[in-house]
Amino acid sequence: MIRTILGLSAVLAVCSVAAQEAPEHQHHHPQTTPPPAAPAPAHEHMKHGGAPAADGEHHDHHGMIAPESREFPTIAYDDTRTARAPQKTVPPPTPGNPHQGKQLAYNPEKGRCLSCHVLGPDGEQPGTVGPNLSDYARRGVSPAQTFQQIWDARVRNPHSVMPAFGTNTLLTAEEVADITAYLHKLDMPVNAPAPLIQDTRGVWIVGEDFTRADDVIDDGQRLFQLPGNNGKSCATCHTPGGSGPDLNNAAATYPKWDAQRKRIVVLEQRVNLCRMQNMNSDHYPLGSRESNVLTSYVKYLARRTPLNVATDGAAQDAIARGKTSFYRRAGQLNFSCANCHAPEQPVAGRWMRGDVIQAMTDGGGHRDVAAQWPKHFIGGHDLGLQSLQQRIEHCQAVTRTLPLPLGSPEYVELELFLTSQGNGAPLLAPTLTRLRGE
Known about the structure:
Layout: H1 98-106, H2 143-151, H3 173-183, E1 203-205, H4 215-225, H5 234-237, E2 256-258, E3 263-265, H6 267-278, H7 289-301, H8 314-327, H9 338-341, E4 351-352, E5 355-356, E6 375-378, E7 382-386, H10 388-398, H11 409-421, E8 431-433
Parallel strand pairs: 6-8
Antiparallel strand pairs: 1-8, 2-3, 4-5, 6-7
Helix pairs in contact: 1-3, 2-3, 4-7, 6-7, 8-11
């Protein structure tokens, strides 16, 4: 398994479609009330920056969006929905089936219990963000208490981060009863996996460590020198003797406030604005291979320059909004980024299946995470070259929060907040996920 820099969100369970934005983004928010029942696709595919599919689009088959996620709050600024109220209930009269309960508990798309808890001796790579349940039958907890805890733990603890599996329709009453029956059969203590000694930085640096992703720099340089419709290229202005600014340090200052547009723009949007205004060329869709590769090259030109995004003026308000999004709980699992990635949370450094939860804000051991993206990201699957916003988008999808469009104000300002946390850290992008043991 893989040690990721941005782990999936959860504390008891592992619980957008990418908008191909031109610089002037059209932002469509979900309804503020649950949509009417209607036939829904089995899933929607997110776009990513890996190898293009035959149709020229970029499909990510590992970030499938659950249709049910539309019924729950998002982090959109105009989404005023709140989490469902805690629900007290009683078990069904028929006892659960412990064999079926084990299957549900081990299933990462259903009970998800193994993601955060040590269970039976045959559980592979159990998590440690929740208590060890391997001898749960000895705890003296009644089946009714167990059923309620799984159904909605907030009844007992209003601040619980355990998903409300019953209230939020993740599991049926019969499925909760089955898992309850399984847990009450566990009476053999199993040792939790040892903490990881984090003696590696978790990434390979493309262009320095001789990685299989080194072609990103060559491809980016080609796009940098590729003439647009008027014969000009990025290199026309941004090489010695050109009319544009030196790019040796520029990437380390993004995202930044654009006074003309009166909003924060990320580096990908700045590149698109230049393409459209100075090269008479179309923008690259955010999240496309072209956008990620060209952005990677521009960041490569500023390699090891300390991050230095502005935190005053208009940026100060945007950072505050990004921080609010970081702490805002949303989706069917009712998670926030902070539930896993804020250093004040007790889960930082613990296992979630094969991943280690990493704290990425000020005071955390991985506050410089934004300095590593774009990244050729491997997280259970090889997702190819990804932007930071794509990683946020994918993380929201797998935690059953309806993602927003790439380039949306919420994602842009969340990226600014995360980048500001790493100010002073050297810019390393592009990078490649470093697998444990490499």
